[in-house]
Amino acid sequence: MKTFRIGGVHPQENKLSAGKKIEVMDLPKQAVFPLSQHIGAPAVPCVAKGELVKVGTKIADAGGFVSAPIHSSVSGKVAKIDTVIDASGYRKPAIIIDVDGDEWEPAIDRDETLVRQTPLEPKEIVAKVQEAGIVGMGGACFPAHVKLSPRTPVDVVIINAVECEPYLTADHSLMLEKPDEILVGVSLIMKAVGVKKAYIAIENNKPDAIALMQEKVKDYAGIEVCPLRVKYPQGGEKQLIDAVVGRQVPNPPALPADVGAIVQNVGTAFAIYEAVMKNKPLFERVVTVTGKSVSEPKNLLTRMGTPMSLLIEKAGGMPEDTGKVIGGGPMMGKALLNTEVPVCKGSSGILLMTEKESLRGEAQPCIRCSKCVTVCPMGLEPYLLQKLSEHADWERAEAEQIMTCIECGSCQFTCPAHRPLLDWIRMGKGTVGGIIRARANKPK
Amino acid sequence: MSNKLKVSLSPHVHSGDSIRRNMDWVIVALLPALLWSFYVFGWGAVIVTLTSVASCILFEWAISKYILKTAKTTLADGSAIVTGLLLAFNLPSNLPLYIIIMGALFAIGVGKMSFGGLGNNIFNPALLGRVFLLISFPVKMTTWPVPHQHTAYADAVTAATPLADLQSANLGDLFFGNIGGSLGEVSALLLLVGFVILLLRKVISWHIPVSILCSAFVFSVLFYILQGKMSFGDICLISLKHLLAGGMMLGAVFMATDYVTSPMTHKGMLIYGACIGFLVVCIRLFGSYPEGMSFAILIMNAFTPLINNACKPKRFAKEVKK
Amino acid sequence: MNVILVAVIALGALGLVLAAVLFLIAKKFAVEEDPRIAQVAEVLPQANCGGCGFPGCSGFAEACVKAANEGSLEGKLCPVGGQPVMEKVAEILGMTAEAGEQRVAVVRCNGTCANRPRTAQYDGVRSCRIAHNTAGGETGCFFGCLGCGDCVAACTFDAIHMNPETGLPEVDETKCTACGACTKACPRNIIELRPMGKKGRRMVVRCVNKEKGPVAKKACAAACIGCGKCVKTCEFEAITLENNLAYIDPTKCRLCRKCEEACPQGSIVAMNFPPRKPKAEAPAAPKAAETPATPQAEPVKIVIPTVETAPKAPETPNV
Question: Domain count of chain B?
């Protein structure tokens, strides 16, 4: 069974909410929409305080080409445009809407019948994806229409249904309940970029999803299910392309499109279906609420802007022994300061980690066991990059390719001496990135 | 739940691996050979082992506390015990106590702590201790007791080891360990069992031991062929005996694979092991010492930083593949 | 006997030959160096602290000679040696040294444990550069001191220490040489090199929070809320307000202390002034007295050598 070639680790899967049917989350009383829910320029509000909006109304325009518009997920009145702390931990401007009822924009087709065909041309499909504000739902939040407009010709589309992070099951449950919609979404993506072949990559800890999708793809031309051996970080774009088609994307500025591949998350494919076929912009997503002490781990279909505290309540409330609240998975997610943070386009899960689990071990000196080197999926030497960052040797750090680190955390996960490798490497990347930018901007 | 949430940077989980766990499994892997040494060498083996381990622990604790004045000693990670055991494995079972203690002091004090403690030493501490004792007490370090003298210690009857005359040594004895020698090096079989344990528990990878043994075999065959005095079959047999005799197996599996002093990439490990194999055979066949493993490993320890610089891991997308 | 003689002669001859070889090589491959560099290097303090901005004392000596060749020693200052050393250097190079202004590191944050409640627990590397990546660290203020002590570790003069009660660093002004290491170490640019001031007295806004007033105040009781009262009160136009944060220009400030009284938050602090005589009206904000970093009991004995024109503040890179 295929997998990526360099490095990788096997964290405990803990898929506590696997197999749980998607439940629809209740509407919040107030919905908060940070203007920066995607990579690229923040969105610009196009509503003012006091305006009435419906579900699906556009409330912010895209701030540029690499940007995405934001649509309201609730109906009600715009209360204010203020700053809030969002899932990134930083304070960002946001539109806050007081919820009143659940009135949808009439253009949205709420009928659940599957629509397989569309008369739209590829460029029109991409335009519709852009209008709907669709971004990568795997967590990176890269505007989808930019990915669907590659600068080099591509020949394969890979759908990332791998969900390699422990605990998270949002994509898994979506595949089990909406396989046809996903596959139509995939065919739309194929049409938009003009490829004939698509792979749905699923890790083999989801045999039910693999079996179901293998059954369903028989009705769709050019789509094949590609089961993969479980290994983290298989869901990383570069690792996934290596695993499925054996191509390795070179260092930036190269993009996956330069090796002829486009990767989209399976949730994004579903959102593209809804946008193109049902005129439904992106305003809701499946969020996994989970944790070892959570009484009812769930997969919740949530409207964007819902405070995470409400989802935690729905899953049985915050357990007594919670040490950390993590937005996302335990390997790459961010520890949140408080639970009032709103659900955004990239919020794949909320992990309530127990106090015991969240304790970091005490760091000891490096014993040069080279386990970090063995597991690094990018072929780097984390022990060395950490030391260089700590001693501020930026020239050598750049030479040792610190900028290709994808911050997956495999090194720190493995290190027997519990060394904070990624903490230092991340800081080093920031500094070296700044030096590179300064060098590029220096007038000749 | 305490009122405050913890805030930290990702990753938020850990594999559960620790230095302690790795050291524990090394000790478990050493146990078969250790127990065999008690059986073959009796009381002497027990005394030497206990003294070595106790001295190593004591010196590490004392140096950490009184000389380096660190806040916490690193005894809890178990590396002092491993150094003590490995040092004992390299000593004959009739070695007087004061020599063992001096060896432990040199191994821990000079070999490990003077460089900065765990993780900072350049040379294998146990091997440094052994070589120090070999050079300082050459006679006592090279007179080994005859096997199966169970109650003897310093007064044991001594005899030459198989390495002195390999051609007439019995292959079976060499493999199972019914021979004289230093404590831990006699039974090739049980050392191989230890190797398998370490592999299964993912403590070490196969690269160093396999490359050492293969390289030693190849170069031994080569040099005997160049010598031109024996038939090919005999050459292969004696080369095989070289692998089983003396400190070869112990060095290949436990000493050369020491994390701190060996290279970090698999390619580097293969080069490192190949050079060790070459050096061992050179010293054994052409040098004035009968046993060359310790020196070969120490020499290659010095080259490890160079190997690390030259052998970088395979970078992702080094060649653009389609 | 023979053997000893042979050995002595052989080794002696070898020694002589090698000495001759070395002598010839030293002559042939000699590196031309301006002799003034060595002369200047000799009068330097040999601390190799980097406070001058050059790699060690020899690097500074080279730079001085190079600058002298170009005509001016402008910007060259050894903070450890101060004016006496610079005068010696100038003498060697045939120039004169002028007096400039002594500077000192000032910590512009008053987010003590009492003022700024800890709302989370930071678990990880105790380094400010790393903790900076967690956005807020342990408090609600994204701009304030993280308390992990990178500045303390950077100081080679033992001039800055963490106060365990307040959780903030405190500068020992007798030892601070204004070398700038702590300003570079702080990822949030909280520490600033400001002029020492007459008798060490100066006014400073002890806050770098750029959030809007209510947000800043919620995170810390001593935060600058950007109300602008200080700007209005200052008769010398020394205070500017930008991004909800007030800043006092040390070159214009006349130490009248009116801004300190006007500030409703107690963010403006008067450093090293003698205690006010008790008046009818209480000082503007009681919190100002809680800042232990500004010893007010007696003026601190400060040696204020006048030194050459101080170099520009070192560029603090954004980490």
Answer: 1
Distances (CA, A) of C266 to C144, C257, C291: 16, 12, 10
Q: What digits encode the pLDDT tens for the residues A359-396?
A: 888 899 999 999 999 999 999 999 999 999 999 899 99
| Interacting residues of A342 by C-beta distance below 8 A, sequence separation 6+ | A31, A32, A33, A34, A84, A86, A87, A94, A304, A305, A306, A307, A308
3-state DSSP call for residue B64?
helix
Token duo for residue A50:
């006091």
Q: Give how far Cα C165 sits from Cα of B141, C143, C170, Å.
A: 60, 20, 11
C271 contacts C284 by C-beta, under 8 angstroms: no
Report which of B120, B28, B31 is spatially closest to residue B74, judged by C-alpha positions. Answer: B120
Q: Which residues of B touch C (CB under 8 A)?
A: 2, 4-9
Instruction: Verify whether the Cβ–Cβ distance C123 to B6 is below 8 Å.
Output: yes
Domain with CATH 3.30.70.20 in chain C: 103-271+284-290
Nearest CA in chain C to A337: C120
Which chains touch B (3+ CB pairs under 8 A)?
A, C
| Predicted TM-score (pTM) of this structure | 0.87
* DSSP alpha helix (H) spans, A178-230: 179-193, 207-216
Task: Give this complex's ipTM.
Answer: 0.90
Please identify among residues 199-218 of chain B the ones whose CB lies closer than 8 Å to any CB of chain A: 205
Of chain A, the percentage scoring pLDDT greater than 70 comes to 100
Nearest to A360 among C123, C211, C317 (CB): C123
Chain B residues closer than 8 Å to C130 by CB: 9
Contact B17 A414 (CB under 8 A): yes
Burial per residue of C77-112, b for 16 or more beta-carbon CB atoms within 10 angstroms, e otherwise: bbbbbbbebbbbbbebbebebeebbbbbbbbbbbbb
DSSP state of C301: -
**And the tokens for A232?**
């983290």
pLDDT tens for residues A235-293?
999 999 999 999 999 988 889 999 999 999 999 999 999 999 999 999 999 999 999 99
Q: Are A397 and A388 in contact (CB under 8 A)?
A: yes
Question: Domain C103-271+284-290's class?
Answer: alpha beta
Q: Which of A89, A423, A424 lies nearest to residue C135, judging by beta carbons? A: A89
d(CA B322, CA B211): 33
Closest partner residue to A337 (CB to CB) among C119, C130, C211 is: C119
Does B195 map to a domain? yes
Residue numbers of the domain that contains B225: 19-310
Q: Are C265 and C222 in contact (CB under 8 A)?
A: yes
The CB-side HSE value for C172 (13 A sphere, CA atoms) comes to 12
Search chain C and give the residue with CA nearest A428: C319
Sequence length of chain B is 322
* CA–CA distance, B207 with B185 (Å, rounded to integer): 20
Q: State residue A444's pLDDT score.
A: 60
Pick the CATH number of A23-99 from 2.60.40, 1.10.287, 2.40.50, 2.60.200: 2.40.50
Q: Is A335 in Cβ contact with C134 (below 8 Å)? A: yes
Q: Do residues A108 and A278 lie in contact, with contact meaning Cβ atoms separated by under 8 Å?
A: yes
Q: Could you tell me the CA-to-CA distances from A302 to A107, A284, A306, B238 in Å, in that order?
A: 21, 5, 7, 74
B285 in a structural domain: yes
Contact C317 A88 (CB under 8 A): no
B12-53 tens-digit pLDDT? 999 999 999 999 999 999 999 999 999 988 888 999 999 999
Residue B215 lies in a domain: yes
> Could you give the CA distance from residue A164 to residue A11 in angstroms, rounded to a whole number?
9
Token representation of residue C9:
């002669």
Measured between CA atoms, the residue of chain A closest to residue B269 is A370
